[in-house]
């Protein structure tokens, strides 16, 4: 997607939603990339220990999700303006993705967040939505009503691994198609996006990160892009 702008990129996915074209968008920002690089991390919402056998398994699954290829599968990577050109180029190369299946990890946020709130969220009101979010989240405050809510613990990819098979079973049992699955659960959202796309590509799977925090109120830490008129809320990310 290097031939379109930051705004045109979110418009591209907005049009897919309006046309009810199923797709997956799995985004990998600095935290996910730190895990892929095997660096220890603890950002209050998820953590990774490079010396842990179990965490190594999670990292392997995250890499699988990063490199997974499917006609409907899009991968968001860190842009040069936010993480530097070296990280951008390394992520682009390591992903093994075709250029037309790469997009911004920040696609829903920064200066695109107002567009997301105005244009993307209202679509969820008329869709069957399956939401994965922190168990402390107040889903009654959301501007749409989820069909199913999967309550996730902090560091969900340690505690909620069974949710993968549960979600697959629910898809099969209820014959869920043309639904929207929303993941607000750190790197576990990337793995869910990957696993559920492989299982059933007849739904839309969106890793939307912290975008619902203002309603859910369950953030481990605040993001500046949704707190008001500031540098981050006005930042238009650049691909090159």
Can you walk me through this structure?
It is a single chain. This protein has 240 residues and is an alpha/beta fold. The chain has one domain (6-226). 39% of the residues lie in helices and 15% in strands. It is built from ten helices and nine strands. The strands form two sheets. The chain has a seven-stranded parallel β-sheet with strand order 5-4-1-9-8-6-7, with helices on both faces. Strand 8, helix 9 (187-199) and strand 9 form a beta-alpha-beta unit. The protein is globular, with a radius of gyration of 17 Å. The model has no long low-confidence stretch (mean pLDDT 94).
Offer a few descriptive terms.
about 240 residues, alpha/beta, seven-stranded parallel beta sheet, two-stranded antiparallel sheet, 10 helices, 9 strands
User: Which descriptor suits the 3D outline?
Assistant: globular
Helix content: 25-40%
Name the helix and strand elements from N-terminus to C-terminus, one letter apiece: HEHEEHEHHEHEEHHEHEH
The total count of strands amounts to 9
Structural class, please? alpha/beta
Radius of gyration: 17 Å
Spatial strand order of the main sheet: 5-4-1-9-8-6-7
Biggest sheet features: 7 strands, parallel
In round numbers, the mean pLDDT is 94
């Amino acid at each position: 997607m290097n031939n379109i702008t930051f705004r045109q990129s979110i418009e591209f996915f907005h049009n897919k939603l309006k046309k009810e074209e199923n797709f997956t968008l799995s985004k990998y920002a600095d935290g996910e990339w730190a895990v892929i690089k095997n660096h220890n991390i603890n950002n209050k919402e998820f953590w990774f220990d490079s010396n842990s056998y179990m965490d190594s398994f999670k990292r392997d699954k995250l890499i699988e999700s990063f490199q997974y290829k499917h006609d409907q599968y899009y991968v968001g990577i860190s842009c040069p303006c936010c993480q530097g050109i070296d990280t951008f180029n390394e992520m682009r190369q390591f992903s093994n993705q075709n250029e037309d299946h790469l997009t911004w990890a920040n696609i829903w946020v920064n200066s695109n967040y107002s567009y997301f709130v105005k244009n993307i969220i209202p679509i969820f009101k008329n869709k069957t939505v399956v939401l994965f979010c922190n168990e402390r989240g107040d889903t009654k405050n959301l501007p749409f009503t989820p069909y199913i809510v999967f309550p996730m613990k902090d560091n969900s990819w340690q505690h909620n691994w069974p949710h993968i098979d549960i979600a697959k079973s629910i898809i099969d049992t209820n014959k869920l198609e043309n639904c929207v699955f929303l993941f607000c659960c750190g790197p576990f959202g990337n793995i869910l996006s990957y696993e559920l796309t492989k299982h059933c590509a007849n739904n839309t799977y969106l890793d939307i990160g912290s975008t619902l925090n203002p309603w859910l109120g369950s953030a481990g830490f605040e993001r500046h892009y949704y707190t008001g008129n500031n540098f981050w809320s006005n930042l238009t990310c650049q691909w090159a």
